[in-house]
Amino acid sequence: MARLARILDRADELGMVPLLGLFYFGQEPRLHGEPALRRAVRETTDWLLARGDRHVLIEIANEVDVAYYKSDLLKPHRCQELIRLVQEHSAGRSDTPAGRLLVSASMAGGQIPPGHLLAVSDFVLLHGNGVNSPRGLREMVARCRALPEYRGQPILFNEDDHFDFDQPDNNMIAAVSSRAGWGLFDYRMPGEGFDEGYQSPPVNWGISSARKRGFFRLLSEITGEQPQA
154 pLDDT exceeds 80? Predict the structure, then answer.
């Protein structure tokens, strides 16, 4: 938690909004039963509010529709219970326009949330893994917005392992042109050296590869912000 506090504090100094994930299937076995999951949600919420964090978004769990989770609370048909728990437990306790923390859960690559989950989510988290054409990303955004439960929430692809940053169209451009956010999932592939991959520890956090340079070059073009020397 001390390390997390340092990350959140530095992000705040930089004007960044961290997306804080609470549960991952690799760690779920450490928590035994639904009471432990609910307690973890409440105590993390209390910790963030006690710190006064106004700049943090919550992701209940990564890819709740994959088969690795054991607890029903971390699966699509019940994950909304933990989303509501964050919303209700933080209500009226945050000096933000919503007066509480904002929370969602992500789906696996190519999937959109079911209507009941979309209905309670403050924002929509999608993954572009396995979506091998920009057209596919645009269709995912359109499908979300066409659901009757969609009420205008922001849409964010917070994981996508596609690049092609030098091409006239790619997944990043597809998301942004659809008024959705897009996050690079940059892992070190087999045979690649240390300079590759922001996702694979140990990490070289510099702009140290052609793939990284391509991402920041396109990001600079889209935002109009020049990278610092």
Answer: yes
Asked if residues 159 and 129 have their Cβ atoms less than 8 Å apart, the reply is yes
* Residue 229: per-residue pLDDT: 57
Burial (Cβ within 10 Å: 0-12, 13-18, ≥19) of residue 62: buried
Structure tokens at 25: 């299937």
| Cβ-proximal residues to 80 (8 Å cutoff; 6+ apart), any chain | 116, 117, 119, 120
Quick one: how far is CA 112 from the chain centroid? Answer: 14
**pTM greater than the 0.85 cutoff:** yes
pLDDT at 228: 67
- DSSP per-residue codes, 107-157: EEET----HHHHHH-SSEEEE-TT--SHHHHHHHHHHHHHSTT--S--EEE
Contact present, 187 and 161 (Cβ < 8 Å): yes
Closest CA to 202 of 210, 193, 211, 212: 193
pLDDT (tens digit per residue) in 25-37 = 888 889 989 999 9
CA distance 90 to 86: 6
